[in-house]
Design goal:
alpha/beta; Rossmann fold; six-stranded parallel beta sheet; two-stranded antiparallel sheet; binds magnesium ion
Length: 187
């Protein structure tokens, strides 16, 4: 299972003065959602191998250092895995969109790499979920050939984009906990 990070495992940071939303730029800003450690442990119990695939362009944009971003990621993993789950692979794209890399979502480079790292040969891409709270997560998942889970309200800007691009997430719900509820009921 391929998990986007910000907005899935941890909260994004809102700057009320600037009106901007950003990834945490320092470990001290990391707030993992309270339901995540348990939800990840339940996913592991269901037999899913877990990886994170995340775009983190802030150091390339000069907003923080690469070291801060790496430490921030380590802090997210530490808190998210407090329930005993193991995240076996992390793919982080540090580029900006204008860098034209193959890894940045909605490109599929990180998904391919994570799939391989999880030992993808034993499973088909159709067994893989790409889980995220952004249009680019769903887009990357569809391009890769995975099933897609999207967290967000049904009436939102993302919905209009989904419609215009003919994208339909396979699961649409509130958060990771709701998604795990769905997977458990499906069994
Ligand atoms: Mg996100």
């Amino acid at each position: 299972m391929l998990l986007d990070r910000d907005g899935v495992l941890n909260a994004v940071c809102v700057d009320p003065e600037q009106g901007t939303v950003d990834s945490p730029l320092h470990p001290s800003q990391v707030k993992v959602y309270p339901w995540v450690p348990d939800a990840l442990a339940r996913l592991a119990s269901l037999g899913y191998a877990l990886a994170v695939v995340t775009n983190q362009p802030s150091s390339a944009k000069g907003k923080t250092t690469r070291k801060n971003l790496e430490d921030t990621h380590a802090r997210v993993l530490e808190l998210a895995c407090a329930g005993g789950a193991v995240i076996r692979d992390s793919q982080i794209c540090f580029h900006r969109s204008e860098d034209g890399c193959a890894c940045r979502k909605p490109g599929t480079g990180m998904l391919e790499a994570a799939f391989a790292a999880l030992g993808g040969s034993g499973t088909t891409k159709d067994d893989v979920w790409m889980v995220g709270d952004g249009v680019t997560d769903v887009e990357a998942g569809v391009r890769f050939g995975a099933r897609t889970a999207f967290f967000g309200p049904r009436k939102c800007d993302a919905c209009k984009i989904f419609e215009s691009r003919d994208l339909v997430p396979d699961f649409w719900g509130k958060n990771l906990e709701a998604f795990v509820d769905f997977l458990e009921k499906r069994r």
